[in-house]
Amino acid sequence: MGDRATGFLMRMAAVVAVACLAACGRSEDTSTDLEASTPTRTATTAGELPPSPTLVAIKRRGRLNCGVNQGLVGFAYTDNRGEWRGFDVDFCRGLAAAVVGDPDAVRFVPLSAENRFQALEDGRVDVLWRNTSWTMERDTGGRLSFAGINYYDGQGFLVRRALNLNSAAELNGARICLQSGSTSALNVEDYFRSRGIEYRAVVLPTEEAARQAYGREDCDAFSADVSALAAARTTLGDSSQHVILPDVISKEPLGPVVRRGDEQWTAIVRWTQNALVLAEELGVTQANVEDQAAEARDPQVRRLLGVEGEFGSRMGLSDDWARDAIAGVGNYGEIFERNLGSQSALDLARGLNAQWNGRPAGLIYGLPVR
């Protein structure tokens, strides 16, 4: 038997094995998918990724299970009609469009900072897109892998304007509201200890509880990612009476998290996010994506949209995967503007999240599809 025939039979055997595993898993109505929680190693030909049990589970149930924040304006929250909105929510929808062909084929699973990683490890969600910082401990300490960075943030302090503060270094003896289960408390400890400043941590179980405690004046300052502070300020009675101090005390690279060991699924999440970033760089928008697919001469655009090459099929997807994602939610810039930027209540500047070749330049950089 020739090498190509042998390779074909091996691939078919791998697909059958994974399909059997999916068929033996729990029903769609249960809280976890066994086939998604434990990646299966199968034989593949050289250069191919092992078939993804997570992808098999998603296609079987017909939807993506996406872990998101329990409620953070701009990133993940429900509107007055109960519809999920936000920056992270749109990335979940883009991923669903790439995988299933439908941006609405998503079940959003609200998770706290403390239970988010366990929910992912247990298979209750396929991907965690919940303003989670990429740190060494998280990346090397368990069954988790980061698939990329979609927002560059940093931790700061929200205080009342009446305190007339110019710097966090003036918070000597202050009560600082913090959320448990996050890196916030550790960053605050590092900041004040290195400067010999006394403070008292007021640790609450959720971001919402920390924000409410600050609103009740149970603490003098609220410390979290600057984007979360901007969101919190919009919910306070008179937002003009609260200011975010200029100090940024940490680097918080936020992005999607997946289970370790499922290389194909990690690649799908990484390259779907990257496709939305690259689309902005190449001028491909939600409004013009179909015209670009039909008329573009730029080889970069043609490869991105599946007109040339077979990049989607390498990941077990349609070659239109990126086109579907862009058509579903728009490019990175469109997602940013409507959720966090000038079209939103937060009105955040792009800052570090501007394109690398923007004016001014940022850190958002599209990897080449080729």
TrEMBL record:
**CDD domains found in the cross-reference section:** PBP2_BztA
Choose any GO biological process term that the UniProt entry carries and state it.
Answer: amino acid transport
Please provide the record's keywords in A-Z order.
Signal, Transport
Q: Where is the composition biased (Polar residues)?
A: 33-45
Listed Pfam families: SBP_bac_3
Q: Which Gene3D superfamilies match?
A: Periplasmic binding protein-like II
Q: Where are the transmembrane segments?
A: none
PROSITE patterns from the xrefs? SBP_BACTERIAL_3 (PS01039)
Look up keyword Signal and say if it applies.
yes
Give the matching SMART domains: PBPb
Q: Is Transport among this UniProt entry's keywords?
A: yes
InterPro entries with a match to the protein in the record: Bact_solute-bind_prot3 (IPR051455), SBP_3_CS (IPR018313), Solute-binding_3/MltF_N (IPR001638)
- Family, per the entry? Belongs to the bacterial solute-binding protein 3 family.
The protein depicted here goes by the name Extracellular solute-binding protein family 3
Q: Which species expresses this protein natively?
A: Brevundimonas subvibrioides (strain ATCC 15264 / DSM 4735 / LMG 14903 / NBRC 16000 / CB 81)
Organism placement in taxonomy: Bacteria, Pseudomonadati, Pseudomonadota, Alphaproteobacteria, Caulobacterales
